[in-house]
Each structure stands twice: as structure tokens, then as C-alpha cells.
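Dear H.,

Thanks for agreeing to be a second pair of eyes. The structure we're designing against is below in C-alpha cell form, covering all 184 positions.
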């Protein structure tokens, strides 16, 4: 019995010595190999970014954008401010949603009770949507796209320089929404 214990003790000690020498050699090889750190080129990075407005509506941009701000509206909707590529007509966009109960008190980015906007109506699937264009201070145009999907008000707002007509801006905003908004 004593000889069995001695043999087990010897095997245990040999095993622990072997394990320690293996660890040391692994550490040595790790120290010798240089670490390769790759930095991704931001111009080549085409990440798909999605912003969920409601359970049934997701903004899937066809171009890269920077998320500037994200918040909740009344606990039932979402609001995002994004900056788009500087090459397009629309470079800043606010995307928002809220449920039916809060539509009357929706916090628009720009609200002008005095000015009559230029209103355009578009076909949006089987529904209609509207784009309101206001003259904003500092020689700018403010456009607001509005549509209702599954009881939620969806609003897309932008401010651009006053270099295009209000009809062109309304059409550009509507086309951007058609291309980037996925509905379920």
C-alpha cells in the first residue's frame, strides 16, 4: 500500500513539473511573437446600421450615418438624430415615432403656428403621407415627413439650406424615407 502511494506521489510531482514547464514555453512563445493590430479604414467600413422606431418600423439606411442623439418619447416611441454623408442634399435628419395616444402632443423639432407650410402628399404603400415644408430662420427650409403605420405616428424632420424649391425638398425627403424605412 505504501509503495502505491509513493508511485502516485511521484507521478503527481512529475505531472506538475511537466505542466509548469509547458506553461513557461507557452509564455516564451507569446512574448516572442509580435502583436498585429489592425485598424479598420473608416472609409472602407460599410456597417449596416438600423434604428428601431417601433416594433413594425426600422430605419435601415442605404448610406453610412453618425448617430448624434437617441432618446425616448413618452415611453412609447423613439427619437434619433443622425448626420448623413455631406455629399447629399439632406445631411441631418431627425427620426421619431410615438403611439396614437400621444400624437396630439408630439414634440416636433420646429413648430410654427403662424406660417402656412407648403404641403405635399405622397402615396406610401397603401396609405398616404404628407411632407410639410416651412421657411426656417437663417434662409433655411425645414421639412417634416409624417405617416401613420400600425397606429404609430412616424416623423422624419430635416433642415437644409434654402437652395432648392420646397417641392424638390419634399420629394427628396419622401424618396429617402421610401428607400430607408422597412415596415413589418
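And this is the sequence the design step returned. I haven't edited it by hand at all.
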Amino acid at each position: 500500500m505504501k509503495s502505491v502511494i509513493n508511485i502516485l506521489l511521484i507521478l503527481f510531482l512529475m505531472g506538475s513539473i511537466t505542466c509548469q514547464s509547458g506553461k513557461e514555453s507557452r509564455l516564451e512563445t507569446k512574448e516572442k511573437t509580435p502583436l498585429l493590430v489592425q485598424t479598420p479604414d473608416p472609409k472602407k467600413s460599410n456597417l449596416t446600421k438600423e434604428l428601431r422606431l417601433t416594433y413594425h418600423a426600422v430605419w435601415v439606411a442605404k448610406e453610412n450615418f453618425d448617430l448624434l442623439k437617441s432618446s425616448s418619447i413618452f415611453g412609447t416611441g423613439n427619437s434619433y438624430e443622425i448626420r448623413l454623408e455631406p455629399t447629399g442634399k439632406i445631411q441631418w435628419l431627425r427620426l421619431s415615432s410615438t403611439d396614437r395616444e400621444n400624437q396630439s402632443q408630439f414634440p416636433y423639432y420646429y413648430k410654427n403656428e403662424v406660417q402656412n407650410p407648403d404641403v405635399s402628399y405622397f402615396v406610401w404603400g397603401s396609405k398616404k403621407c404628407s411632407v410639410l415644408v416651412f421657411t426656417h430662420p437663417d434662409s433655411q427650409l425645414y421639412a417634416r415627413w409624417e405617416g401613420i403605420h400600425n397606429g404609430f405616428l412616424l416623423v422624419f424632420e430635416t433642415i437644409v439650406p434654402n437652395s432648392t424649391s420646397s417641392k424638390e425638398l419634399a420629394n427628396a425627403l419622401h424618396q429617402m424615407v421610401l428607400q430607408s424605412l422597412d415596415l413589418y
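Two observations from my side: The beta strands are 50-54, 57-60, 65-73, 77-84, 92-98, 118-124, 127-136, 140-149, 152-161, 181-183. Residues 23-27, 32-46 have pLDDT under 50 and may be disordered.

Warmly,
E.
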